[in-house]
């Protein structure tokens, strides 16, 4: 017998207690095999636990975060294996009913199930999955993990998912001892993998997002349930600690994310933030602490979305407040969050890393990679470095980038470096919310002459500006008031917008460019990911978000956040129409480092 901790395993080798499983020499035997993992304080689970576990508690151990792993020394010898686990979900009835659990063995799904109470779950591992490699690597995925502290029913700030007391693995053909204390003698429940979920055809374009607007005239009003006010101009407040929605089900198969534009009720010095827990069918899909108006992107587990006629969403907000209580207004409503928009966004194939965006830590994610390769080069030395490390010259580097705005900063850089690019957002000014709306809308307003307005700007001399009303973006027409009447200018701008719109999407489908969004303040990870999802709907594009440098992020560096999403840092995000040489050098270094990181992304996709 093997002795691992206080558990005996068949096969004829003696081990010291708590010996790591990697140090075990697995003999090749031809009998049955049996391993039991005890998660109590006196148990042996430390020998088997790898990533994703919390500290020891008297009779069990919590799995934490989205993924926990076990490594079990096991030689199946061509036999089917049974995996048993005594597990209880982290929940808070009635708001949080339980968890969803997915289980993989040696990288292959062996079962998934909803878990609303403590149960003894059983999974069968086929002989070809168990193999003869000497180990069972078990991966436990809990997309519904959450922090109890954020719900205010505990001070526990761990990201809890499931509480484990016992796991057993044994070959199916052997008799095993009965369990003495498992969930009050509840009968074991056998779990199988769900049927393989359909995916959209590889060559089919992804559908656009389904967008719901809030406010007095919002199209979401028929789907509001308890916990909402009647609505105001363009927004609707939550007025309770729990607010519910019941949206229509998804139009087609595939992965989706929930996109939200929300504003928390903040009172400086009294209410610094609002925490929100987002639930789908009473399982947590996201938790966030909000301090300002923001965009959120939340991946939705396919197990909770597919095959449903409706999507029951709820928002738990534990700390709403009445403005009148803090002397900021006479408003006596119990306000938590003001919602402006919710969208169900299809996730393009190949997008990775989205699951990292469902927690309160999403805007402090560690980058996957960082490049500062060109920081030591002066302006004269950059030419040789570009050729040596990227195989291109400055002109070739600049052609790989296209601006998204929301201001003219990158256009000024391109022009100063001799690149006169013609593209849709060149010289445009707007904001990130309008940019997201424009991409989500497929720039439809640019093809609709009724959405285009030409008006005089406020500068001197007065010149015409073209405005796309639905997005709030405006462009200089480079025509002064005395040079033309409004109608000919409007006609030429309508023709121009329609042409540039088609050119923009042709470039996106080509997938060769990196799109640049530059802002004088940080572009949140959620906003950036929303933009990337819209770009990726049309092709394998990358997004470079450029923001001000700081001591931790020197000018010229770039970081890969998730595949396809890069951050860059410069000293001056909004240079003048004639940028200083130092500003141009910063930008060249950022573009070069981003090109290196995009090449890394392609290598690792």
- Report the span from N to C terminus: 45 Å
| Tally of DSSP helical segments | 9
Instruction: Return the domain count.
Output: 3
Q: Helicity, in percent?
A: 10-25%
The average pLDDT is 87
Alpha-beta content class = alpha+beta
Oligomer: single chain
Tell me the overall shape: globular
User: What is the strand content?
Assistant: 25-35%
Number of strands: 31
Largest sheet: 7 strands, mixed
CA gyration radius, whole angstroms: 28 Å
Segments where pLDDT lies below 50 for 5+ residues? 1-19, 24-30
Task: Describe the SSE topology.
Blueprint lengths: L1 E3 L2 E3 L24 E5 L14 E4 L4 E4 L2 E7 L7 E9 L9 E7 L2 E8 L3 E7 L1 H4 L4 E7 L6 H4 L8 E12 L17 E3 L18 E4 L22 E2 L4 E7 L7 E9 L9 E7 L2 E8 L3 E7 L9 E7 L20 E10 L22 E3 L10 H9 L3 H6 L1 E5 L3 H8 L15 H9 L11 E5 L6 E6 L4 E8 L5 H25 L3 E5 L6 H12 L5 E7 L9 E5 L2 E6 L10 H24 L1
Parallel strand pairs: 10-13, 24-28, 28-29, 29-31
Antiparallel strand pairs: 1-2, 3-12, 4-5, 5-12, 6-11, 7-10, 7-12, 8-9, 8-11, 14-22, 15-22, 16-21, 17-20, 17-22, 18-19, 18-21, 23-30, 25-26, 26-27, 30-31
Structural description of this entry:
- With 605 residues, the protein is of the alpha+beta class.
- The chain folds into 3 domains: 190 residues, Galactose-binding domain-like (Jelly Rolls); 138 residues, Galactose-binding domain-like (Jelly Rolls), CATH 2.60.120; 236 residues, no CATH class.
- Helices cover 17% and strands 31% of the residues.
- The protein is built from 9 helices and 31 strands.
- The strands form 7 sheets. Strands 3, 4, 5, 7, 10, 12 and 13 form a 7-stranded mixed β-sheet that branches. Strands 23-30-31-29-28-24 form a 6-stranded mixed β-sheet, with helices on both faces.
- Strand 1 and strand 2 form a beta hairpin.
- Helix 3 packs parallel to helix 9 and helix 6 packs parallel to helix 8.
- The chain is globular.
- The N terminus is likely disordered.
């Amino acid at each position: 017998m093997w002795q691992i901790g206080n558990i005996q395993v068949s096969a004829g080798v003696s081990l010291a207690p708590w010996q790591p499983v990697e140090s075990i020499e697995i003999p090749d035997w031809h009998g049955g095999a049996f391993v039991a993992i005890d998660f109590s304080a006196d148990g042996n689970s430390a020998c088997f636990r790898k990533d994703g576990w919390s500290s020891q508690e008297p009779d069990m151990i919590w799995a934490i975060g989205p993924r926990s792993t076990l490594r079990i020394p096991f030689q199946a010898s061509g036999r089917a294996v049974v995996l048993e686990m005594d597990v209880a979900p982290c929940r808070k009835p009635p708001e949080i009913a339980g968890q969803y659990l997915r289980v993989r063995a040696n990288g292959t799904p062996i079962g998934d199930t909803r878990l609303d109470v403590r149960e003894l779950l059983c999974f069968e591992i086929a002989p070809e999955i168990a193999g003869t490699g000497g180990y069972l690597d078990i991966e436990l995925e809990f997309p519904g993990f959450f922090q109890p502290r954020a719900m205010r029913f505990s001070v526990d700030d761990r990201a809890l998912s499931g509480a484990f007391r016992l796991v057993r693995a044994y070959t199916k053909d052997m008799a095993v001892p009965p369990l003495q204390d498992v969930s009050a003698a509840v009968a074991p429940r056998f779990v199988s993998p769900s049927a393989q979920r359909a995916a959209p055809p590889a060559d089919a374009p992804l559908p656009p997002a389904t967008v719901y607007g809030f406010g007095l005239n919002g199209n979401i009003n028929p789907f509001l349930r308890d916990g909402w006010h009647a609505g105001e101009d363009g927004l609707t407040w939550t007025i309770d600690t729990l607010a519910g929605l019941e949206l229509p089900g998804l139009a087609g198969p595939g992965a989706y994310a929930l996109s939200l534009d929300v504003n928390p009720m903040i009172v400086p010095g009294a209410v610094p933030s609002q925490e929100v827990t987002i639930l789908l069918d009473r399982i947590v899909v996201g938790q966030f602490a909000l301090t300002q108006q923001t965009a959120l992107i939340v991946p939705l587990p396919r197990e909770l979305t597919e095959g449903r006629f409706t999507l029951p969403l709820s928002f738990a907000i534990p700390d709403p407040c009445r403005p009148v209580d803090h002397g900021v207004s006479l408003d006596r409503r119990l306000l938590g969050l003001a919602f402006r928009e919710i969208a169900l966004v299809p996730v393009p194939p190949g997008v990775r890393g989205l699951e990292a965006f469902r927690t309160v830590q999403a805007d402090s994610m560690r980058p996957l990679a960082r490049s500062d390769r060109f920081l030591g080069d002066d302006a004269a030395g950059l030419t040789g470095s570009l050729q040596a490390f990227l195989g291109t010259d400055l002109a070739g580097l600049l052609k790989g980038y296209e601006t998204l705005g929301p201001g003219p900063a990158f256009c000024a850089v391109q022009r100063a470096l001799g690149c006169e690019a013609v593209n849709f957002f060149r010289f445009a000014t707007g904001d990130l919310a309008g940019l997201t709306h424009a991409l989500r809308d497929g720039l439809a307003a640019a093809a609709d002459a009724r959405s285009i307005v030409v008006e005089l700007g406020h500068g001197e001399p007065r010149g015409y500006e073209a405005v796309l009303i639905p997005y709030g973006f405006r462009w200089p027409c480079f025509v002064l008031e005395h040079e033309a009447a409004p109608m000919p200018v409007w006609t030429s701008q309508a023709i121009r917008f329609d042409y540039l719109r088609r050119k923009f999407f042709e470039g996106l489908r080509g997938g060769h460019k990196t799109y640049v969004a530059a802002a004088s303040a940080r572009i949140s990870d959620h906003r950036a990911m929303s933009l990337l999802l819209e770009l990726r709907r049309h092709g394998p594009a990358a997004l470079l978000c450029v923001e001000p440098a700081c001591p931790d992020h020197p000018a010229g560096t770039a970081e890969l956040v998730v595949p396809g999403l890069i951050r860059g840092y410069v000293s001056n995000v909004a240079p003048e129409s004639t940028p200083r040489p130092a500003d141009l050098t910063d930008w060249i270094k950022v573009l070069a480092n981003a090109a290196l990181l995009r090449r890394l992304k392609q290598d690792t996709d």
